[in-house]
Structure formats: structure tokens, C-alpha cells
TrEMBL record:
Similarity comment text for this entry: Belongs to the synaptobrevin family.
Signal peptide residues on this chain, from the entry's feature table: none
Gene3D superfamilies xref list: 1.20.5.110, Longin domain (3.30.450.50)
Transmembrane regions listed in the UniProt entry: 194-216
Protein's membrane topology: Single-pass type IV membrane protein
Stated name of the protein: V-SNARE coiled-coil homology domain-containing protein
Role description: Involved in the targeting and/or fusion of transport vesicles to their target membrane.
Longin domain sequence ranges: 7-112
Compositional bias segments (type: Low complexity): 222-234
Matching InterPro entries: Longin-like_dom_sf, Longin_dom, Synaptobrevin-like, Synaptobrevin-like_transport, V_SNARE_CC
GO cellular component, one term: endomembrane system
Region annotated Disordered, chain positions: 222-244
Subcellular location per the Swiss-Prot or TrEMBL entry: Endomembrane system
Amino acid sequence: MPILYSAVFRGVTNVADFSTIPGNFNAVAKEYLTKASRNDGKYTYVVEGTTFNFFTKDGTTFLCVADEGYGRILPAAYLDKLAADWTAEIGEKLPKDGVREGQLTATYSKRIKNLVDQITASPEQFSKIQAVQQKVNVAKDVMLKNMETMMIRQEKLDTMVDKSDGLLDAASQFQSSGKKLRTHMWWNNFKIKIIIGAAVLLLLLILFLVICFSAVHCFSSSSSPNSTPNLSPTQVPSPPPSAG
């Protein structure tokens, strides 16, 4: 049979169980419950050719013991079915604290037996359901990973865009600073040229004035146009003799 033993626990208290063959499954299960019931989820332990499959959900732990040859898919599908049935039939009717060992054995153990009989009669239905569920879970995991990858890429793109904007701003500031620097340098060169030109003109003027007033009287004439020669009487020429 696929399922050898099945039970429902609150903490380490066995609320209800069903066994197809005799064995100390309950005692062995309680040794692992302290590990399996800490967090929600599914856990599997291999013990002497059998698998102890646990499914903890909202403080309730569901267990099925199966032959190791049946693998993990069939026990996992059975646990999903058992958990759904427990939620529908018991739900919040059973308090979370103060439960007794075997408190629902007389009532809920029959439902566990029915589920074990169903999986024994048609295990392919449970395995197909679990296979589909696994494909859905795989697809969901792939989608989540893809979304995570896209988010990481988007963050990198945003970072690159921010860096590009920063570089553009820096380039614009550099270009503006370059224009201001070129203008400043042009004015400095222009001022230097004006100063040099003025210095050259001043030097030429000084040289011109020095030359004029030291060697040659540039602004005085050698003779006056209104002056007449001063001739003495002895220098007056005599008139020529008359002819006859």
C-alpha cells in the first residue's frame, strides 16, 4: 500500500491517526516533530526504507508514512488532500492549545482511512494532481526569478540613466566653464596687446622727442622770410658808366 500510516498532530500531540500495518510510527514521528513543526512547510525524513513526510500549516502538522519506493510526489499529494479535508471538516473547531492525545481518533480517523483508501485505489489521480501542482510551482518559481532578474536589470538601468544624466550635467558645466575660460583668456590677451601697443607707442614718442630736442631743432627755421641783408655803403655797387 502507498500509505502505511497517517496522523494529524497539534505540536507533538497526536490528535487522530490511522495505520494500515502495525508499527511504532507514532513514536518515531514524535522524534522528528520538534524539527518538522518549527516552521510551515513540507519535510521528509527517510527511516529504514520508509519516508516520514510532514506538512506543517498554521500550527497543525499532517503526517504520512510511505514506502520509500513511492518517492515524494504521491505522499506530497496525499498530504495536500489531507490538509484540505482537515480545514474543511475541523478548521477552527479544535482549539490550538489544551488538546488531548487521540482526542479525535474516534471521529476523524475514519476520514483519514477514507483518504488512504482513495490513494490506494487510484494513486495515479493523486500523482497527476501533484505533478501538475509541481509544474505550476516550477512555473511560478521561474516567473518569480524572471521578475527578480527584470527588477535587478531595471535597477541597473536606472543607475546607468542616473549616471548618464550626471555625466551630461558635468559635460554641460564643463562646456560652460570652457566658454567662460576662453572669453576670460581672450580678454586677458586683448588687454596685454593693448598694454604692449601703448608701451611701444609711448617708447617711440619718447625716442622722437629725445632725438628732436637733443640733436636737431625740429620746430625752429634757419632763416626768416621777412629779413633783408644788411649791406654796408662800401658794399653798394656803383652804377655802370654811360656811353658817350
